[in-house]
Design a protein that fits this description.
Elements lengths: L1 E4 L2 E4 L3 E3 L3 E3 L6 E5 L5 E7 L2 E9 L6 E9 L5 E4 L22 E4 L2 E4 L8 E4 L3 E13 L1 H5 L5 E13 L3 H14 L13 E2 L7 E2 L5 H13 L4
Antiparallel strand pairs: 1-2, 1-9, 3-4, 5-6, 6-7, 7-8, 9-14, 10-11, 11-12, 13-14, 15-16
Length: 228
């Protein structure tokens, strides 16, 4: 993962490769890491400009949410994100092989991959642009497995690259997720949201429009994503 600003490429993550190489080394740029309320990294990308990366996994569904945003000052940035895929359980490691399929299908803001026919499809829902660019990243080094005397190297497949216009990211989030909810505020109950809605389009509202928790959830989401 890296950002591109003013013609310069700024790495945002680093990996350990065998035999024991950290690359790219971003330790001088990494300002902090916290696990509350979920894993959050703060990285310096320019003077007085901090990029925040967050990840959250829903235990019940295994959905993984990734988010990148500026903290304080902003700047025009192209964020490049490469997903790394495998096809194994947690007792094994994955290695380059010709059986893996890099094929991708795109449908609007969704991209699907199925590296192996006997494994579930992987879906990415995104407000970025996907470019298919398959490759292998080899020789990841896992120090804990090495200490245990187990296989400690792994190869991961990357099917392509997502590009985001990060300077406009929060506006995109508001337009995509919050604008439809805000549009209901003056339709069925003044400054309120209906309790439920149909799951299928056109998502007809139902239930009572005057439930405090419905409006509170909208306010909570706006606070969470930093939209005022």
């Amino acid at each position: 993962m890296a950002s591109e600003a003013n013609g310069a490429r700024i790495p945002l993550t680093m990996q350990r490769y065998a035999p024991d190489v950290l690359f790219p080394d971003i330790r001088t740029k990494l300002l902090s890491f916290d696990t509350h309320p979920w894993p959050t990294w703060r990285v310096s990308v320019a003077e007085n400009v901090v990029l925040v990366a967050e990840t959250f996994v829903a235990k019940d569904t295994a959905d993984t949410v990734l988010r990148w945003r500026f903290e304080g000052q902003t700047m025009p940035v192209h964020l490049k994100v490469r997903p790394l895929l495998s096809g194994r359980d947690y007792h094994a490691t994955h290695h380059e092989n010709p059986a893996l399929s890099f094929d991708a299908s795109a449908d609007g803001g969704r991209v699907h991959w199925q590296p192996y026919a006997d494994l579930p499809v992987i879906e990415a829902s995104t407000n970025g642009h996907y470019e298919h660019s398959p490759d292998w990243y080899r020789n990841f080094c896992y120090t804990r497995e090495r200490e245990r005397g187990m296989d400690f190297t792994e190869d991961l497949a990357t099917p392509g690259v997502f590009t985001f216009q990060l300077a406009h990211g929060e506006a995109d989030v508001r337009e995509r997720f919050l604008a439809p909810l805000n549009a209901h505020l003056d339709r069925f109950g003044l400054d309120h949201l209906c309790e439920v809605a149909d799951g299928d389009a056109p998502h007809t509202p139902g239930g009572t429009p005057f439930q405090a928790w419905s409006l509170a959830e909208l306010l909570r989401i706006e606070k969470l994503i930093g939209v005022s």
